[in-house]
Structures are given as structure tokens and as C-alpha cells.
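Record minuted for completeness.

…
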Amino acid sequence: MNFTYILHNFTVLTIDCQNVVFKLNEHLENIVILASHYDSRVKATKDPNLSLRSDPVPGANDGASGCGALIELARVFYNNRLDLECQIWFLFFDAEDQGTDYDTGITGWDWCEGSSRFANDLEDFYDPSEDFDCLLLLDMVGGDNLQFINEQYSTSSLLQEVFEIGRQLGFEETFPSNPISSTITDDHVPFVQKGIPSADLIINFWNNPSWSYHHTTHDDLSHISNQSLDITGKTIEQFIYNNYLDIPENNYIGNYPWHDDINLLDTEIVIILIIVIAVVAIPTIIYTIYKKYSKVKIDQVLT
């Protein structure tokens, strides 16, 4: 009934790396993966201080926050393991964060190296009688002013259910009704490609004044919010209880098996399209009004 764990060793170029997975309720056949990455970026390529861009990123939010949430969830679910109707994997990825950013990265490395390797070797880690229900990825879940986006590589029915649970728990600002939509290459993508329903809980990290520390030396504990971690953990905890708690009074109906997927245009693309349409349409409207006005003036002169 205890955790079992597996170390998944691999190399990227000549660098030794290691994914780690802990399994709870390994005797059950349906698997839920809760995942995060534990590496942090080797160079602070977006630091406002140019002299610090070769320094490592502390990674308090971008990496450690998701791992911290998983460790606490593991403690909570272990205490309730006998009442859960699923096997849970707590999966910690290495080598997620070393791709090219601002034209700088580790030469030859791509993003999400660890999750890609793990997904490629996935058959080595489970029995053919077992099946994967879903994967939930936690990435940058502990920063101040937490607000998740509608990540478009995610399976929409799964992400929608997590958002709805968050709102039902009273976390409307974290799980907004009209979130930003964007596609993010992250550790869930290799699992989506293998047909496993997956969702990425991630923030707007690219132009977000509320959390401007992505890939800088300021991604440290001073910008971590206990409230954000609490919101994330309680929402994932409730998701598991809603779908897998084996008690008679649990009549929750969610979106399981989470295969439905509707992709939306990225918010930034929508804004660009609106601007383009406006740029094209406004002169047309002005010209049409001018022509009609001119015709009226000519008719008045002729009469």
C-alpha cells in the first residue's frame, strides 16, 4: 500500500538527466498522472540586468511550485488512498526548461526533453492491463496574482472541468470565465500526442505585469504566494475526489472520459484579426459614406 518509485534515466547530448515517478495505489488499473518539472533554467535569459543573464534561474515558481504542490497532494492522497478508485502517478520531469529563449539556450537542447523521453518509453512503466485516464500538469502555479490561461494543446473537456471546479470552490479570479487562450509547448504535449487526455495549468508568463519574473533571477521565494499554492492544491484535490472518491454520497458527474476537444484561436491572434479587420473595414465604411454623401449632394444640385 506504500508508494513505489521509478527512476527514468536518460541523456541529452552528454548530460545525465533523470525523471522520477512515484506510484500510489499501484494495484488499481486506471491511472491519473499528476506532473510537474523540477529542473530550472540554467541561464536567466530574460533578466532585466544584462550582467545576470548567464546566472541560473532560482526556479521558485517555474518548476518548484508545481513540485511543492505535488508533494503536498501526495501526502493528502496517501492518507485517503483506501477510498480512491484510481492509481495516481506523481511524475517529476527533468530537462523541461533549457530550450532556446531570446536566442539563448543550451546548444542542441529542445524544450520538454524529459517528458518527451518519458512518453516515448511509457510502455516500460505500466502493465498492458492498465490504462491512463488523464494527465494534469502543474507549471508556474505558485506566483503572486495567480490566473490560469486556457491552454490550447490541452484536452478542452478536461481543462474545462478543472476550471469549473476551481470556480465552484470560489477561485473565480484564478479560473476566470473568459481566460486568455494560448498554445504552450509544455510537458503535457507528448502525452496528448499519445492519446492521453491532458491539461496544463499554466499562467500568462510572456507579457504579464502581475508576474514578470519568468526566466529571470527574480523567480525566487519572495514572489511565491501561499494562497496560490493553496488554490492550486485544493482544486486538484477536489478534482480527484469528485471523480475517484469511493463513497456512497459521491454523485458528481464530470466530463469523464475527457476526449472532447475544442480548440480556440489564441487571444493574441484574435486581437490581431480584430485590428486587421478594423483597419480594412473603417476606410471602406468611410469611403461608402463619402460616396453616398457625394451622391446626395450631386442629386441636390441637379434638382
Remarks:
- The chain has two domains: 4-264, 267-303.
